[in-house]
Specification:
By secondary structure, the protein is an alpha+beta fold. Among the domains are: 90-153 and 205-343, 3-Layer(aba) Sandwich (Rossmann fold), CATH 3.40.50; 353-415, Dna Ligase, domain 1. 31% of the residues lie in helices and 24% in strands. The chain is built from 15 helices and 24 strands. It has helices at 4-9, 32-39, 42-60, 88-112, 117-120, 126-130, 178-191, 193-198, 207-217, 240-250, 306-312, 329-332, 335-343, 360-368, 394-406, and strands spanning 63-68, 71-76, 79-87, 152-154, 156-159, 165-169, 228-231, 253-255, 260-263, 266-271, 274-277, 280-283, 316-318, 350-351, 355-356, 373-377, 386-388, 411-415, 421-426, 429-438, 440-444, 447-450, 455-459, 473-481. The strands form seven sheets. Strands 3-24-23-20-19 form a five-stranded mixed sheet. A four-stranded parallel sheet has the order 8-7-12-13, with helices on one face. A four-stranded antiparallel sheet has the order 15-18-16-17, with helices on one face. α10 (240-250) links the parallel β7 and β8. α3 (42-60) packs across α7. The longest helix is centred in the N-terminal third of the chain and has 25 residues, at 88-112. The radius of gyration is 23 Å and the shape is globular. Pfam families: CP_ATPgrasp_2 (PF14403). Residues 83-459 form the Circularly permuted ATP-grasp type domain.
C-alpha cells in the first residue's frame, strides 16, 4: 500500500491531456489546499473512506440499472472519493453560457411549434427538422405556461486540452442524474467533513426546493395549493431511485400512469378519498409513451387523453412534450446559430466541432479520417450507438460504415477530444481518469437558475473516454470554490 508521499508523488497525468490537478510542473492552485489535506490521510485511510462511501451508497439504495442481454441488472452507482474542483471564476462562465444556451433553445422550440421563422429564414435546414424523429407534430400550436419548454436540463460539458469548457450535448427531455449529485455531496460530508467545511464549497442541497417552487409556479390555474405529481415509468426503470428520491425530497406524490385518469379534459389522481385534480406533472416518461391515444397505442406507462388535457391547458407537463427535437445531435450543431439569431449574441460556450454524415463531402472527410473521429447516433443516449474510430476493428467498421451509408441522417461525427482528467482513487493509488460535467439548470418564470457543481461523470476504465454509468462510468462530488481566499 502506498504511503501519502508516494501516493501523490506517483500521480502522473496522461501526455497531451489537460489534468485539472497537476500542471506540467506543479499542483494547480484550486487543488493545493485539498492536496495538502489529503496527503495527511495516506492510502490506508483513504481506502477505509472509499469502503465507507460504498457502504453508504449501498445502505441508501443508490442504484442504477444496466440492461444487458434483455436482463436488468441493478448496481450500486460507482463513486470516487476525490472531489473535482472548479473555481468560482470558471463557474461564472459556465453559468452564463448555459443560461444563454437555454434561452435560445427555448425560443427555438417555441418557434418551430408555431411560426417556423428560423426555418423560413434558412438558419436551420427545414429538412433537418422534418426528418427528426422527435419533432412532435401533435403538439404544434399548444400554448405552454410562460412560453417555457425546457424547465429542467442537464447540459453536458467537457474541458478540452486547452483547459476551456465546451458544450458536448444538450439533454432537454427527461435528464437524469441529479439525485447522484445530491447524494455524492451527502456522502462527502460523511467522509471528509472537516475538509468540506473549511473549503467554503458552494452548496447544492437547495435543488429540490428550487424545482418544487418552479413546478408550483407552472400550475395553469390561479389556485393557492396546486397538486404536483412525479410520473414514473415504474420500478423497472433505470432511474427509479432518482424518481423516488426527488418525489420524497419535494414532498409530492410519485405516480404511475395507472394512478391517473383524464375526465372532461382534466387529469385526476386516484386516492383513497376519491379523485383529486392534478395541475402539474413532472414526467420521467418519454414522449412516445405518454398518451396511448396519440403516440404508442400499446403503451402502459402513460395516460389516455393526457395530450388532450395538455392542449386544453388544464395541466402543465414538465418538461414540455416535443423537446426532443432540440437535443437531436444533428440539431445540436446549429445551436450557436440559434444564439446569434434569437439573442443577437455570440455564444459564451462553444460547441465541439460537428459533422453531419448526411452531407456527402463531410461524410467522405469523416470516412477518410475515421481514426481521429467519434461517430454518434443522433437519437441515442447512455453511450450507446457510439463508434470510437481509434478503437474499432476493420471488420466491425466495414459493417458500421454500410449502416451509416444507408441512413446517414441518423449519425453525426466529432473529433475525438481527450477529455480532461482528474485524480481518482483506484486500487489504492491516485490515477488520472477522464471526466465530463453535467450541471443542472432550472428554467422558471423568474429565469434560469443553476445549482453550483453538477454531476461529474468519470470514465473509470483506464484510458476510456466513455463516462456513462451504463458503460462502466462512475461519478464524483463537484466542488465550486472561490479563489484565492478559500481554504
Amino acid at each position: 500500500m502506498y504511503e501519502a508521499s508516494e501516493l501523490f508523488g506517483s500521480y502522473t497525468p496522461n501526455a497531451g491531456t489537460w489534468d485539472e490537478m497537476r500542471g506540467w510542473d506543479s499542483i494547480r492552485e484550486p487543488y493545493k489546499a485539498v492536496y495538502r489535506q489529503l496527503q495527511k490521510f495516506g492510502a490506508d485511510l483513504l481506502l477505509q473512506k472509499a469502503q465507507l462511501a460504498g457502504e453508504l451508497f449501498m445502505n441508501q439504495g443508490i442504484t442504477f440499472t444496466v440492461y444487458s442481454d434483455n436482463e436488468g441488472i441493478e448496481r450500486i452507482f460507482p463513486f470516487d472519493i476525490i472531489p473535482r474542483i472548479i473555481t468560482g471564476e470558471e463557474w461564472q462562465i459556465i453559468e452564463k453560457g448555459i443560461a444563454q444556451r437555454l434561452k435560445a433553445l427555448n425560443l427555438f422550440l417555441k418557434d418551430i411549434y408555431s411560426k417556423h421563422q428560423i426555418l423560413n429564414d434558412k438558419i436551420v435546414p427545414p429538412e433537418l427538422i422534418a426528418s427528426c424523429p422527435h419533432f412532435t407534430r401533435e403538439v404544434f400550436g399548444i400554448k405552454v405556461p410562460y412560453d417555457i419548454y425546457v424547465h429542467i436540463s442537464g447540459i453536458d460539458l467537457i474541458r478540452g486540452d486547452d483547459g476551456k469548457f465546451y458544450i458536448l450535448e444538450d439533454n432537454l427531455r427527461t435528464p437524469s442524474g441529479v439525485s447522484y449529485m445530491l447524494e455524492n455531496r451527502e456522502v462527502t460530508k460523511r467522509i471528509f467533513p472537516n475538509i468540506l467545511a473549511s473549503s467554503h464549497v458552494r452548496g447544492v442541497s437547495n435543488y429540490p426546493p428550487m424545482l418544487h417552487e418552479i413546478l408550483l409556479q407552472l400550475a395553469p390555474a390561479q389556485i393557492s395549493n396546486p397538486t404536483v405529481v412525479l410520473l414514473t415509468p415504474g420500478i423497472y426503470n433505470s432511474a427509479y431511485f432518482e424518481h423516488t428520491f426527488l418525489a420524497r425530497s419535494m414532498g409530492i406524490k410519485l405516480v404511475e400512469g395507472r394512478d391517473l385518469i383524464v375526465d372532461n379534459h382534466k387529469v385526476f389522481m386516484k386516492t383513497t378519498r376519491g379523485l383529486q385534480q392534478v395541475h402539474v406533472i413532472y414526467r420521467r416518461v418519454d414522449d412516445e409513451f405518454l398518451d396511448p391515444l396519440v403516440f404508442k397505442k400499446d403503451s402502459m406507462l402513460g395516460v389516455a387523453g393526457l395530450l388532450d388535457a395538455y392542449r386544453k391547458g388544464s395541466v402543465s407537463i414538465v418538461n414540455a412534450v416535443g423537446n426532443g427535437v432540440a437535443d437531436d445531435k444533428a440539431v445540436y450543431a446549429y445551436v450557436p446559430a440559434m444564439i446569434r439569431y434569437y439573442l443577437n449574441e455570440e455564444p459564451v460556450l462553444q460547441n465541439v466541432p460537428t459533422y453531419h454524415l448526411q452531407n456527402a463531402d463531410e461524410r467522405n472527410h469523416i470516412f477518410d479520417n475515421i481514426h481521429k473521429m467519434v461517430i454518434k447516433s443522433t437519437n441515442q443516449s447512455g453511450g450507446y450507438g457510439m463508434i470510437m474510430g481509434n478503437k474499432i476493428a476493420d471488420e466491425e467498421w466495414r459493417d458500421a460504415r454500410k449502416v451509416i451509408e444507408e441512413h446517414p441522417r441518423n449519425y453525426i461525427a466529432q473529433p475525438i477530444i481527450q477529455l480532461s482528467t482528474v485524480p481518482c482513487f483506484v486500487d489504492g493509488k491516485l490515477a488520472p481518469r477522464h471526466v465530463d460535467l453535467r450541471p443542472y439548470a432550472l428554467y422558471g418564470p423568474k429565469g434560469v437558475q443553476i445549482v453550483p457543481g453538477g454531476l461529474t461523470r468519470v470514465a473509470l476504465k483506464e484510458g476510456s473516454l466513455v463516462v456513462n454509468s451504463s458503460q462502466g462510468g462512475g461519478s464524483k462530488d463537484t466542488w465550486v470554490v472561490d479563489m484565492p481566499s478559500v481554504f
